[in-house]
Amino acid sequence: MNDIEPVLQVRNLSKTYMQGKIPVHALNDVSFDVEKGEFMSIIGPSGSGKSTLLSMIGLLDKPTSGSVFIEGVEITKVKESDAPRLRREKIGFVFQHFNLIPTLTALENVDIAMRFARVPKNERKKIALELLTQIGMRDRVNHKPSELSGGEQQRVAIARALANRPVIILADEPTGEVDTKTRDMIVDLLKGLSEEGHTILVVTHDTAISQKTRRIITMRDGGTASDTISH
Ligand SMILES: Nc1ncnc2c1ncn2[C@@H]1O[C@H](COP(=O)(O)OP(=O)(O)OP(=O)(O)O)[C@@H](O)[C@H]1O
Ligand SMILES: [Mg+2]
User: Fold this and answer.
1) What is the 8-class DSSP label of residue 125?
2) Does the predicted TM-score (pTM) go above 0.90?
């Protein structure tokens, strides 16, 4: 890959779900490029296709038509059997509900993401500790999710998303369940990560978040209604 090529290219992406016999056009011909290190938000009304878009980019589901390229590789074309590996290597997910494993500590929750990627044990522990320290959770590494606040759980989820050094971080309403102070902290954390070269796409309803991102794509009825870049 050369430096000029966008990290992410979305081309004429469409997704139609069937609800019984009724087609639901969740995405209609969406196209855009994202540069490395971009910090962008995707906003728009409920049902406008934001989560559908993220699940296509994140290889969680296949589009009806169109393509997604990550670092020039057409991920929408890969075999089903190759999808998990590609997802692990290229994508870090952060969800609204944190999705941590309740029986594991913070450290183990980050560690397990790397276990599937066959990173040696010592190396995993070192990376997990580094990541948790970076996000201010060094003194909570042995806590289980139930022993952590919502904001702390989300920070662990962000550390987990970073564990395999993904090309892109996809976050769907990452601050939907935390208070405003924690929200601001998480947004600052994501912004800092983008400044380090991570590419971050955040789906949000919260204008306090989108205002802090450099680029905002607004979705409406499955299409992009606007795409604005500031400073
Ligand atoms: N698995 C599915 N089967 C059928 N229809 C679906 C499915 N997933 C989403 N849809 C429909 O596709 C449209 C877009 O949904 P999507 O979840 O992408 O919206 P969203 O913008 O993320 O909304 P919200 O802000 O409420 O999360 C909606 O009309 C939704 O009902
Ligand atoms: Mg959604």
Assistant:
1) H
2) yes
User: Do residues 4 and 71 make contact, with C-beta atoms less than 8 angstroms apart?
Assistant: no
Please give the Cα distance from 130 to 112 (Å, whole number).
15
Residue 18 backbone phi and psi in degrees, to 5: -100, 125
194 lines ligand 1 (CB under 6 A): no
Report, as an integer, the average pLDDT of 173-186.
87
pLDDT at 231: 62
In the numeric block, which tokens belong to residue 149? Answer: 């606040």
Q: Is the pLDDT of residue 80 over 80?
A: yes
SS3 content of the chain, % helix, strand, coil (to 5): 35, 30, 35
Q: Which tokens belong to 94?
A: 């952060």
Q: Which of 28, 43, 51 to mutate to test the pocket of ligand 1 (most atoms within 8 A of CB)?
A: 51
Tracing tokens 């075999």 back to the chain, one arrives at 79
Residue entry with tokens 């997604």 = 68
Domain assignments of the chain as residue spans, ordered by start = 37-47+80-229
145 lines ligand 1 (CB under 6 A): no
CATH number of the domain located at residue range(s) 37-47+80-229 in this protein: 3.40.50.300
d(CA 56, ligand 1 centre) in Å? 12
